[in-house]
From TrEMBL:
<dbReference type="InterPro" id="IPR006626">
    <property type="entry name" value="PbH1"/>
</dbReference>
<keyword id="KW-0732">Signal</keyword>
<dbReference type="InterPro" id="IPR001480">
    <property type="entry name" value="Bulb-type_lectin_dom"/>
</dbReference>
<dbReference type="InterPro" id="IPR036426">
    <property type="entry name" value="Bulb-type_lectin_dom_sf"/>
</dbReference>
<dbReference type="Pfam" id="PF13229">
    <property type="entry name" value="Beta_helix"/>
</dbReference>
<dbReference type="InterPro" id="IPR011050">
    <property type="entry name" value="Pectin_lyase_fold/virulence"/>
</dbReference>
<protein>
    <recommendedName>
        <fullName>Bulb-type lectin domain-containing protein</fullName>
    </recommendedName>
</protein>
<dbReference type="InterPro" id="IPR022441">
    <property type="entry name" value="Para_beta_helix_rpt-2"/>
</dbReference>
<dbReference type="InterPro" id="IPR039448">
    <property type="entry name" value="Beta_helix"/>
</dbReference>
<feature type="domain" description="Bulb-type lectin">
    <location>
        <begin position="385"/>
        <end position="507"/>
    </location>
</feature>
<dbReference type="InterPro" id="IPR012334">
    <property type="entry name" value="Pectin_lyas_fold"/>
</dbReference>
<feature type="signal peptide">
    <location>
        <begin position="1"/>
        <end position="21"/>
    </location>
</feature>
Length: 507
């Protein structure tokens, strides 16, 4: 995007508008919706400073050139708040797809995931884009989405008539989501900003606590991502800060510029800047993404396992002038890659901050010094965790789980999990090293009728429909269970710390 166009977009985004009616101090989504509907093209609907509007359904723009904002355009906590009400079926707060030159400005948008709950399959707090041009989101706080993103500018799906010229500037985004899945297996992570529009500007935003991608660029040819600050959550692991890994627009990132962004890892980012189709892939590598694109002048610091990684890119890439000296070394002091592929473990153990797979980067390239060549096809950099212990201890009565809930003990190079066939298994680098046996040929059913318990008596056992299938016979004696990352893998100890059972002993 040319500088003159970017400047004109930013100027238009920051010009004050004239409200078409008195500000709204109370009401619900219908209050705002009716004002948009009656105002028509160019309507400016403003909340009063300090107003809090609870909604049970989304607010939708109804015409081009409309605006929703706070009167006086404050940038602090007096911005009007729109919040999803508990018990609501809404996941999106403001919907603006397919309308030109709409503006969302100087508001606080609270998805209220903590109060209204996760919405499996739900959309973003803000949904804009589509067959449109000139949309703006500025000086907005968007946080705690029930769905998958705090802010989503969706593409039109037609490369000949794309969403274009979206301006996303000076917003406070996050927190967005949590790590992992809920009890029903629904992913809890969420993006900060998800951009799927062309020739667009994402500038000066602070994204604090994304758990999927901080800024996800879905191709978006001609777009500029600059001067943003992306900070990982202090409580949850984030997948990546800036992602250039998705293949919309036939994989084209032509003219995309990612410059002068500041990435900070608190608990952990797996990736700082991920570049290429294979960086995020899990199965057969997809076709490479295509430049030319530029990644320059970015600063990455703190707990970031793989600050910049490249694999699955062609047709031009410049990665220069990025600073990664603020990432602690060794990387094992803050993260663990023992569950990654051997190729990724190799570069992790070298404390490599800049990684590329030579066969996965074709065409013209200009890489800054310090890049380390991966020894093989490095796919799925989302494999690291926080630094893992060598053992974990459970007190009697503290462990009751059903099957297929994931590992109940994650250690350096070892996990222990309870499988869907009623088998308690310890795996080292993905290979089983011990199993309880006593599997159920018919499986545990759905919902699962199986449980693993280290009960209050100190007995460890597996159960199907309440009937014991396997046990350690340590009831009345066991006080603690220790899971280790070396043989004998699992021990049960009495109150004096003596081992009364381990995996080498008969049950």
């Amino acid at each position: 995007m040319k500088a003159t166009l970017k400047n004109s977009l930013l100027t238009a985004a920051t010009l004050p508008a004239i409200a078409s009616a008195a500000c709204i101090s109370s009401g619900n989504q219908a209050t705002i919706q009716n004002a948009l509907q009656s105002g028509g093209n160019g309507a400016v609907v403003q909340l009063c400073p300090g107003a809090v509007i609870q909604i049970t359904d989304q607010i939708s723009f109804t015409a081009d050139n409309q605006e929703i904002s706070t009167q006086g355009y404050p940038t602090d906590s007096t911005r009007g708040t729109i919040q999803v009400a508990p018990g609501s079926s809404a996941s999106t707060l403001i919907y603006g797809k397919n309308f030109n030159n709409i503006r969302i400005k100087n508001l606080q948008l609270e998805g209220n995931r903590g109060g209204a709950g996760l919405f499996p399959g739900g959309a973003a707090n803000i949904e804009i884009g589509g067959f449109t041009t000139g949309q703006t989101v500025s000086n907005v706080a968007s946080r705690n989405p029930r769905g998958w993103s705090c802010l989503h500018a969706i593409g039109s799906g037609d490369n000949n008539n794309p969403c274009k010229n979206v301006t996303i500037v000076n917003n406070d985004i996050g927190p967005c989501g949590q790590s992992g899945t809920d009890a029903n297996g629904n992913g809890q992570w969420a993006d900060g900003i998800s951009l799927d529009c062309t020739a667009s500007l994402v500038q000066g935003n602070t994204i604090n606590g994304p758990t999927d991608g901080g800024i996800v660029i879905f191709g978006s040819p001609g777009s500029t991502i600059t001067g943003n600050t992306i900070i990982s959550s202090p409580d949850y692991v984030g997948f990546g800060a800036i992602n250039m890994v998705d293949g919309e627009y036939d994989g084209s990132y032509a003219g995309v510029s990612v410059t002068n962004n500041n990435i900070q890892g608190q608990k952990l980012f797996n990736l700082g800047i991920g570049i290429g189709a294979n960086v995020w892939s899990f199965g057969d590598p997809p076709p490479p993404l295509k430049g030319p694109a530029t990644v320059t002048g970015n600063t990455i610091s703190g707990h970031v396992s793989f600050p910049i990684a490249i694999n699955g890119w062609s047709n031009g890439l410049t990665v220069t002038g990025n600073t990664v000296s603020g990432v602690p070394s060794p990387h094992s002091s803050f993260s663990d890659a023992s569950q990654c592929s051997s190729q990724i473990q190799s570069v992790f153990n070298q404390n490599a901050n800049l990684i590329y797979y030579p066969a996965g980067l074709t065409g013209t390239k200009n890489l800054q010094s310090g890049f380390v060549a991966a020894p093989g096809n490095t796919t799925n950099f989302l494999c690291s965790t926080i630094a893992l212990p060598n053992s974990v201890t459970f007190n009697a009565g503290s462990l009751t789980i059903s099957t297929d809930t994931g590992p109940f003990a994650s250690l350096h190079n070892v996990i222990a999990q309870y499988q869907g066939d009623n088998n308690l298994v310890v795996l080292q680098s993905g290979t089983p090293v011990w199993a309880s046996g006593h599997t159920l040929s018919q499986g545990c059913g759905s919902p699962s009728g199986c449980q693993l318990r280290f009960d209050s008596s100190g007995n460890l056992g597996t159960y199907f429909n309440g009937a014991v299938q396997w046990q350690t016979n340590t009831g009345g004696r066991g006080k603690t269970m220790v899971v280790l990352n070396s043989a004998p893998w699992i021990q049960i100890k009495d109150g004096s710390g003596n081992v009364i059972w381990d995996t080498t002993k008969s049950t």
